[in-house]
Model the fold of this input.
Amino acid sequence: MCRNITPLFNFSPPATDAEIHAAALQFVRKVSGFRQPSQANQAAFDRAVTEIAAAVHTLLTDLVTTQPPRDRAVVATRAKQRSAARFARTDG
Done:
């Protein structure tokens, strides 16, 4: 649905409330089609973000895995390398 929403589970350190809120906000923006809702829709928009963030927090708390936590720095470096390779310019 949205390529920019990144996995938040099984990281060391765990996802912060700010990261969870940002993911919820991005999801609500995508689903609603609003980047910034009108005043008439602001309350519903904010409520949806809050409810989704709470649901994601519960999900991340309840999930279990036998895999060791992933290192954020390593994951970020790999993502940058993939991006550089994907968007590399070839002069020719």
In short: The chain has one domain: 12-86. The helical segments are 17-32, 39-62, 72-86. The longest helix spans residues 39-62. The chain has a mean pLDDT of 89.
